[in-house]
Amino acid sequence: xxxxxxxxxxxxxxxxxxxxxxxxxxxxxxxxxxxxxxxxxxxxxxxxxxxxxxxxxxxxxxxxxxxxxxxxxxxxxxxxxxxxxxxxxxxxxxxxxxxxxxxxxxxxxxxxxxxxxxxxxxxxxxxxxxxxxxxxxxxxxxxxxxxxxxxxxxxxxxxxxxxxxxxxxxxxxxxxxxxxxxxxxxxxxxxxxxxxxxxxxxxxxxxxxxxxxxxxxxxxxxxxxxxxxxxxxxxxxxxxxxxxxxxxxxxxxxxxxxxxxxxxxxxxxxxxxxxxxxxxxxxxxxxxxxxxxxxxxxxxxxxxxxxxxxxxxxxxxxxxxxxxxxxxxxxxxxxxxxxxxxxxxxxxxxxxxxxxxxxxxxxxxxxxxxxxxxxxxxxxxxxxxxxxxxxxxxxxxxxxxxxxxxxxxxx
Length: 411
Fold this sequence. Notes:
Blueprint: H1 11-32, H2 36-43, H3 48-80, H4 82-102, H5 106-119, H6 123-133, H7 139-165, H8 171-190, H9 210-219, H10 221-237, H11 239-252, H12 256-285, H13 287-307, H14 311-322, H15 327-337, H16 344-374, H17 385-405
């Protein structure tokens, strides 16, 4: 197959490797989540409150490093090609998990988390790789497969991490390292370069930084609305990791097993939607309609979460929220149409920075909203207020998309 400009590009090898890369990256990240809080707690003498505060700092720092690193990764991939950036990131992530597995104290564990935030930023380069090798009319479907990979990793990672962590709290770090290093080795022998030399451009720090990347989005008028909608959607996405565990325990009395199974259902449903529905629905109805439908489905599902009076009612809302998974791949596909092949890495880096900002803002926003809604003496006692807020953000995102695409002939 050839890409938009007729440059040979092995699409099958691309999608298989990118799919495996994202699955293994998410698997590795997910495996350490169940054990990282406990490992931190062991370093502070079993003080749970202090461990929770430190874990919050770790999460914020990880998001900040993503925000700062993704534009750099994108710029480097536009200059040197996608292959070396992806492979070096996987190698760095694998070695970093070794560092975290051997960390003798909290300081070294923190260093490992910082490095993890940098090396995990390769996902934006993987997205640019897909754009290099996929015709514009098929990109939404390809990004849907990438989203499916995220879902699979999200389902399997925490479950496997919990199982390994029950044997030894450091074992998931070793397993995550093996997954990332195996990914790097696999890519070294399988992954071809997707960006020809004639399409590369010089690396410039004024572009390869968070502020420069945001200026890039601002300079492309046709991207502003879609980028704003993606930002709102990413903020809304933070509601589940921010409040779900506390919300489910507070309202339904769910234990860790029930929470874990429900999160697995969320991940599996999202993977099914993105892997099986995006391509056929986009071909039939067009990217604009599917993007708007996905955002509104997410808003409806979050509203169902907010007012679900029982755990069964909450579970019934999961398939509705899963349809929100239609929005991400179609938004990615639409945005890649508006920039040339030499700046796909910069585009994905810029979107990664926006996602980093959303990851910083979202948890604080929704955790505060949940705390406010259940506090003693609350005038409006609605435990699901955080989900209502997330739904409102998705409605706003749909309005932004409708206006941004209305006059540009996008279907």
